[in-house]
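Researcher: Let's run the pair from yesterday's discussion. Sequence first, then tokens, for each.
Model: Starting with the first of the pair.
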Amino acid sequence: MTSDGGSTWTLVSPVPTITKTYYLTYAKNDSTTFITGNNSCLQRLKSGVWSSVIADAGSGGYNTWCMSFVPPIDTSKVGWLVGDAGTIKKTIDGGTTWNIQTSVVLGATTLRKIQCLDKDTFVIVGFGGKIFRTIDAGTNWTSITSGVTDNLRSLQFINMLEGWAVGENSAILHTIDGGRSWTKVTTVPATGKVLREVFFVSAKKGFVTGNIDASNSYLWMTEDGGATWTSVWVVASINNTKSIWFLDDVTGFLCANDKIFKTISGGKVPALSAPATATLTDTANSKTAIALTATGYWTAKSSDTWLVISDTIGKLNDTIIATANTATAVTRSSTITFKSNGLADKVVTVTQESTVSTNSLDVQAIVISPNPASDYVQIQNLPSNCNVVLYNLAGAVVLSQSINSSSVSLNIAALAKGVYIIELKISAKVIKKQMLVIE
């Protein structure tokens, strides 16, 4: 059991009678979990206690492979279970009792996966390339041509129309009409291998697990609807992946033998990157776009109130818009810090550059007096955010001061008598330069 999104797990209690577990189904209607297993077993976990659910006492020896509740599962009491030898059972009381169903069409096929699309439409896949479909809640079943004879092991519909099935000999099948017809995907992760599980998080992005060799399991991913596949992970020394399931396109779980693995980066190697710098103009509401590359969830924070960002939390790749909410007469900088999944922070320095020119200022109104001077020099009619720099004739800076008011009185009493150059600057640009005599 987990209570923190799968980061940690604890053993609730040993599961009786099952020596091998195959699939787990969670029925929200009464917070009940079911596990299917070998030797006809179906176990139910309720209020922290496991108990055996006897479907029919005389049908021992087969494996129960999968079960599915009719949607919406948070209110439904109706579910279906499939297994070896054409076994199919139904519950109408949330799994307390099960009744075996019979169908000549299903025969003695090993049925591996069932999914209920609505209260009447179900699809089953099984060995020998078998696919069955019902549109009347199991009263009648139709055998669907799959185009393969390989054993099909897994099935998943992402909506009422589009679904995927995988199996042995690298079989991947695709339907876009609710399972009425299927197309074999010709581009597969690896040829001639056992594909055990499939899970699509969207129409384009999906995962397949399977075996290439006898020792390791593999996880492949497609981001173009099955046109191409990329190996994203090797599950070393584990040759039997049981199931794969994603909460969303970032967080997923993979069960293999007696282990549970979790990804918080969409099945990819965790990554986070952004440009080191970005630039804004000096006007209010100046904007710049920052391209963020991420494989998981991320947060963003601006270091100053004048720099506003469009998003402070998100997932995967995104474009963040940074906006200066005020104009500036001087060049200033702020930072945006991105964090994701314990990776090293990415810090983007955003600079709002001043484009002030002497043409936009009333330079003639600036008055420097007295000149010559002895103890103090007064400067009046200054623009905001101005810098005053005083040089001697050798070019050395003897006084530098930032001015945030329209006038200032500079104390020059400590300076030696002589000729100096006084400069007024905004954002490193000289707006007025004048000779000053100290006597």
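Model: Moving on to the second of the pair.
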Amino acid sequence: LRKVKQYVGDRTIDIVPELAALAIVSDLNWKPRPIFQSYSAYTPKLAELNRRHFLGEDAPQFVLAGYSYLDGRLPQMDDQPLHLELVRAYQPVLVEAGLLLLERKPDIPAPPRRKVLLEKELAFGEFLSLEEYDAPALMVRLSVQPSLLGRLRTFLFGASTVRVETKGAGDGSWRIIPDLVRDGVLIRPWMVSSADLLHMFAGQEHPRVQALRVVLRDDQRIWFQSKVTASVENLEGWLPAPDDGLLPRVLERSFDRAEPGDIDGTIEGMMSDPESVPVEAFESGHSLAVTLKPGRWIIRGKHGFQSKLRHPSDAYRPLNMRLEALTGGEREALLEARWELSRRFDSREPESFQVLWNSKETAQLVFSALDDAGQTHLEGRWEELRFFRVEDEQPQ
């Protein structure tokens, strides 16, 4: 983590939710919270220990934040109280290796005001609708109580698995820990990656979960009481104020600046006259950002994976290649491609692409290689990128 080390220096840092080894190999001054792997904070008391650590004088000056879904858990469930404090007490600095570096604010705002919008009982399989609520930040509490037989089963063999199904953003089925969701889980904004976290800080709207329900198999119902108690709360004053300049500032710190043609083997076929075709490139790991001046552009290139340099941790995870345009704080997806990587040696050739981009203002095009959790995928690669200024429908 070269960029992080340059910015942080010897000041204290923690990594959320896990990946503590990165702090060690990057020679960072790691100051861990009491339960330093978030998936191990599996009770409200353990999660509260971590939250209190970030409230006191021992709180780290920086935090590297990402997301993971161990065992298919509901996103944002692990260390939920800590995540709420991170948004309140820290601000984004830069992105590296798919992780967002946060720095502690000099003046920390007051805790959010919680307003209960709904309390009701649900049957298992009954949806809790969230569409009627316009609040930008919602927390849901779910009380799933074991029956007498369920308590005995938990004591002898461990708890039975409970799942939540979501509709809308994050459409899917997720494992939950009843003790944790009883204290509440953030359901809006729906964030599953450090990129989502960054855009939340910038004040951008996220796709919303429309409804959710707790589901059990028929053979599991004997272990639980027949009803689920649910509540919906509005977190007033928790979200940061919108900041259109945040994304450009973070990208500027995240990438190395280079003039056209300076990046060997990464950008090819650049215009020979940078004065007439102004392009600024920034490179960091397996991502690339290119700043294009207003006009009509054709972007060509190839995307694929490095089959000869397969990294053990990324060997079989699906690879998502993404090209986004950032203008005025808004983002637009220009290209999304998915590679399913094989356990066997895979010799598929990179795929070619062409995108036409028309912007009335300066835009940043961000090329990234991500896994399904939104983290940097070490196998991704962009090749032979070319940028053509278009005039009168012809490449110049």
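Researcher: Give me one sentence on the second I can quote.
Model: The chain is about 15% helix and 40% strand.
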